[in-house]
Known about the structure:
This protein is α+β, with helices and mostly antiparallel strands and about 260 residues long. The chain folds into two domains: about 5-105 and about 245-255, Alpha-Beta Plaits; about 105-240, Pseudouridine synthase (2-Layer Sandwich). About 25% of the residues lie in helices and about 30% in strands.
Amino acid sequence: MARKTTYRERYTNKLIQAGEEPVKKERVARIPIDPAIQQPYADGKVILINKPLHWTSFDVVRKLRSLIQIKKIGHAGTLDPLATGLLIVCTGKFTKKINEYMAQEKEYTGSITLGAVTPTYDLESEPVQQKDISMLTTDMLQAATKKFIGDIEQLPPMFSAIKKDGVALYELARRGEEVALKPRSINIRSFGITKIDLPVVHFKVVCSTGTYIRSLANDYGAELGCGGYLSSLCRTRIGDLKYEDAVGMEEFEGMLIR
């Protein structure tokens, strides 16, 4: 069986096809971490990371595992590679709290590009079905959000990590296989348009766990009759934990060096 293509490989291939040279980082020898720094993480800590663009959530975990040199580590709530923002990483005994963090309310900001759709509902695939958006007004853009506030049923994207008979939907989608998706019950506490710069609208969403913002972008575009896809996303809060308190990967690495 052929090994599945990772996001990193697909992203690198896109750069090559676009005539860009991917930046290759030199491998450096791993320096043993000071046991006094390592031990608190081995015992258990919660790390708030600002996930970099084009990193998968597992890329972050893998890098932190290498830096801290511990095995017991995991993240609470996946962010897509094209999203940035708050990623909760738990180590040691705090890995038992991962499900607790995942169940908490989440807040996002981002942008939706109107007038087209994409198969993945974001920019990981090319926009198609271009449509005119000249008829859109500010009132229409604001009013369309109301349909999605409260307890609603949402269809997840076909390109998602949800599994069907043990196989991720995105793998089935890349094979061209069609799957009948079932809607999920979610809650969107608030969904507001914060800035309009057509064809792009900026938004802020507060929602329950299990909400796919990519699906929300696609459904919002469908409600307007012109299509839409998620063009940027940042997770700004999970429960009481905020993006402002997160650190970048380089900053975290610097914190490990005395």
